[in-house]
Amino acid sequence: MIRRTVLRKLCWFIPLAALALAACAPAPIYKATPGTLAASPMQVAQSPEHYASGEVIWGGSVVEVHNFPDHTEIEILAYPLDSSQRPLTSTAAAGRFIAVYPGYVEPFNYPGGSLVTVSGALAGTRSANVDQAAYVYPLVKVAQSHRWTAAEMRAGHPDIHFGVGVGVGIR
């Protein structure tokens, strides 16, 4: 009898807990438009003729920053994005791309390994090398960008871990 009562209560608790955890996830930072492409940088690099134009929302890890007289180019190792548009670095990389910013961008603000998400228009491709290998980089003319802090990357990820038994981590 007690077991049925506990099971009935758990039947209500589990969906409510799942809903509460989902509500903790931050909203996407950029709104996808009908023209936003779902292709990854790797797909665009392999078939640039299919993706001559369009808007993208891509993110990843900063590789290098190069400043020029009128613009800045940031090479980014792309990763898929989560529902909040944060790069999922625990997954396989999705290619590389070059984010083209108007004007000067301070390299100190984008050190190697920084995680970023950019929104912008595809602006063609460029062939170059990654070490000794030939590579085709999609170019993104950046309209908006966001550099993620460690706290933002943790946001929406509860410190509750299930295993043998139940444990709650407090930081």
UniProtKB/TrEMBL annotation:
Pfam families: Slp
Origin: domain of life: Bacteria
PROSITE patterns linked: PROKAR_LIPOPROTEIN
Protein name: Slp family lipoprotein
Stretch forming the signal peptide: 1-22
Keyword flag Lipoprotein: yes
Keywords: Lipoprotein, Signal
InterPro entries recorded: OMP_Slp
